[in-house]
């Protein structure tokens, strides 16, 4: 328990340091429009919360560098998932991200699981707003558990793994009676159990799974987005069925540097406990 | 279910890109775009006077924008204002004729970056906000202007 508390504090300190660093930089924003960097995701890559989108963090355009830091918390029925992340975008071409997820297992009488995620996402072609065919990106995420004892005991094969995904996003200007729509679909190759928090691979399946993820959002004005996300997850552990995840979200972009997200998140069954649902809140600072 | 997923994804992607490319219009002389089918947007923008006021605001916003104002240092502002008025009028479905050069020709050799283009769009949004143009009308105008992106950037 002590270790878990200390980890949480070190994370908060890390975030504070990053936020200070960000604040210390001359106040500037990239030239891309507000909200075109998405809202940050629990894996550190720019996205909508639950899934990455084809967009890159911040508002850096082709001649600019951007960055962002984010934190999120999900209060599920029997677990809490806490995430801290930071990302850098170079020339709206490449995004490097790091994230730390902490799943507290208090209700199981256990400590917590900590997963670190190192992400790389490249915009392949297109522009979210201006290209007819939208924006295509490809990304990889290397995920590693700080302590893999529990996941391995539950049947996972490894405590680390790599996800790869191809993503398409497009902002459909004025498509819904004059309002903007955002769509995003991704195809992911993964072996992760519960995003990797319960390790990688399992007795039911040794190979990579192809799973899809999608998001649809409506922007009632320039500062708000209402949407939903869906994320397919593999089911590889005996006796511990895993369901697809989904969320309904409201994102607020009060200005270019700040994104606040509130969502209703449904992760399905996690490690033998049914119906893990709850509120998800996230804050991202970016430029 | 998992087995069918990649197929579904490919279908979705094909649908999206397919739908997007079927709307490709044959280039018309001058503006290289077919005028709007109806004048709904033209009327929503306040017709000729509304568009004139918008373009004037737009030029004032650009003049105050250190990111891109230098790009217009050599531009003949009166002509630019006139051609922008004609252009917005035509793509909004108004009873106008665009007499300027094509977007591709105008921007050739200017080395406009995406950052420049994005800054310009941001300035246009600021101008539309100042003019009190509703969000839905703004989006519709932006959607019609978005097709010029490829003719303007990196030429």
UniProtKB/TrEMBL annotation, chain B:
Alphabetic keyword roster: Heme, Iron, Metal-binding, Signal, Transport
Segments traversing the membrane: none
Domain of life: Bacteria
Pfam families documented for this protein: Bac_globin (PF01152)
InterPro entries: Globin-like_sf, Globin/Proto, Hemoglobin_trunc
Positions with a binding annotation for heme: 107
Keyword Metal-binding carried by entry: yes
First and last residue of the signal peptide: 1-22
Molecular function (Gene Ontology), one example: oxygen binding
UniProt protein name: Group 1 truncated hemoglobin
Organism encoding this protein: Larsenimonas rhizosphaerae
């Amino acid at each position: 328990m002590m270790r878990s508390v200390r980890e949480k504090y070190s994370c908060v300190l890390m975030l504070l340091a990053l936020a200070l660093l960000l604040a210390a930089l001359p106040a500037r924003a990239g030239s891309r429009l507000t909200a075109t960097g998405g809202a940050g995701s629990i894996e550190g890559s720019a996205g909508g919360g639950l899934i990455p989108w084809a967009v890159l963090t911040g508002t850096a355009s082709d001649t600019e560098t951007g960055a962002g830091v984010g934190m999120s918390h999900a209060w599920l029925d029997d677990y809490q998932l806490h995430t801290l992340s930071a990302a850098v975008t170079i020339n709206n071409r490449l995004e490097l991200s790091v994230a730390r997820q902490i799943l507290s297992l208090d209700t199981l009488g256990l400590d917590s699981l900590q997963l670190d995620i190192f992400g790389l996402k490249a915009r392949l072609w297109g522009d979210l707003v201006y290209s007819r065919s939208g924006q295509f990106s490809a990304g990889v995420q290397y995920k590693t558990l700080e302590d893999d004892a529990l996941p391995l005991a539950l049947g996972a094969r490894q405590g680390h793994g790599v996800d790869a995904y191809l993503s398409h996003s497009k902002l459909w200007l004025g498509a819904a009676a004059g309002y903007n729509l955002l769509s995003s679909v991704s195809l992911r190759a993964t072996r992760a159990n519960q995003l990797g928090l319960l390790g990688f691979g399992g007795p039911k399946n040794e190979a990579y799974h192809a799973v899809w993820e999608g998001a649809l959002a409506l922007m009632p004005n320039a500062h708000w987005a209402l949407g939903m996300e869906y994320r397919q997850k593999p089911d590889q552990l005996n006796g511990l069925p895993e369901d697809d995840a989904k969320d309904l979200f409201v994102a607020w972009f009060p200005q270019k540097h700040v994104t606040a997200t509130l969502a209703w998140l449904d992760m399905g069954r996690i490690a033998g406990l049914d119906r893990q649902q709850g509120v998800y809140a996230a804050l991202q600072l970016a430029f | 279910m998992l087995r069918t997923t990649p197929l579904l994804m490919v279908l979705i992607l094909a649908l999206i890109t397919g739908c997007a490319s079927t709307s490709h219009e044959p280039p018309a002389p001058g503006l290289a775009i077919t005028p709007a089918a109806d004048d709904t947007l033209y009327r929503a923008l306040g017709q000729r006077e509304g568009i004139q006021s918008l373009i004037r605001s737009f030029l004032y916003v650009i003049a105050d924008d250190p990111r891109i104002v230098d790009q217009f240092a050599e531009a003949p502002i009166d002509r630019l204002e006139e051609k922008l008025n004609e252009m917005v009028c035509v793509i909004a479905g108004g009873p106008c004729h665009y007499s300027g050069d094509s977007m591709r020709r105008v921007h050739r050799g200017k080395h406009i970056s995406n950052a420049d283009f994005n800054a310009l769009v941001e300035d246009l949004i600021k101008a539309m906000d100042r003019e009190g143009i509703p969000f839905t009308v703004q989006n519709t105008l932006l959607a019609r202007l978005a097709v010029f992106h490829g003719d303007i950037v990196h030429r």
